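Why does residue order matter? Because the sequence determines the fold. Keep that principle in mind as you read this record.
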Amino acid sequence: MDSSLFDYHLPDERIAQEPAAVRDASRLLVVHRTERRIEHRRFSDLPDYLGEGDSLFRNNARVLPARLFAQRPTGGAAECLLLRPASNEGLEWWTLLRPGKKLPVGSTFSREGYFSATVLEKNDEAEYRVRFDLTNYYSSVASLADELGKMPLPPYIAREKSDARDDADKERYQTIYASSEKSVAAAAPTAGLHFTPQIVEKLTQQGATFHDLALHVGMGTFKPLQTEKIEDHQIHREIYEISEATQSALRADSCRRKVCVGTTSVRSVEDYLAKSDVIVSGSFVSEAAIFIYPPRRFLGVDALITNFHQPNSTLLCLVSAFLDPKGMDGINWLKEIYAEAIEREYRFLSYGDAMLIL
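Structure:
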């Protein structure tokens, strides 16, 4: 399949630079697949569509404020983006470094009074393994990042090194249900950013249930399609964890619909159900390397809440497949939906509006 099928023109002015003033004030484009029609609503209207018997599966991974600024011994600036721990003790991390050419293996950078760091290794993905030496005040690199770090917003959201919106980003580029025990994400599961405690409460009162899983969202989520043929693209890999209770909910026959909040939840659910036909005691932990594109039979997703995605992205492939699991029509239909959303001035990408696909 030609990867150019997943390209479209996204005007710069449609890329949201800030979230809606209130989380659930964002717009909601509702897609009815069987009737092939759409509605234009607000996210606060979500309880009009979901309720009794629906099971919502959401990614409770927490975004670490992973951008750390420091200095090289020469006095030049250094920037370190934490990706994932490289050791059990938590003092070694795989990172991205700037300027990489001036931070070779063996070099150091630091922030006086807080930490010093040594570059130990560089891998084929241009990631650097770094060891941190912390002052006694910090128990871990994660606790250091929580205090000093800046949110790792996507590159299409413009921010200065020191920006007046930094504190707001720390709150709004995080779901309300993110778990402090799951500070494992380098990017937010953005479909969940629209939820408020009031919406969760109302859906629960209406008989819906919420079930958590954790996918360690990596920077690979922003990697565009880079091959002429879809089948040749190497999808990124991400670790996920699904508790025993959530596994049971996924296998329950009693629910009306299984609703995934975001593409990260879809990746976790579909990878798990493809790999295991039993409920694993404790938690099921694996690495998702699943690439979903049309046509695709979904094993555990009946409805999807998602944002509007970048051109030439694997996420467009996934959403197209969900629009028409049995064929290829979802590709052109998604382009038609996006064209109408652009015309109606919907806000796109991470801080943008949402879609509900039923």
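The domain at 3-63+172-357 is CATH 3.40.1780.10 (QueA-like).
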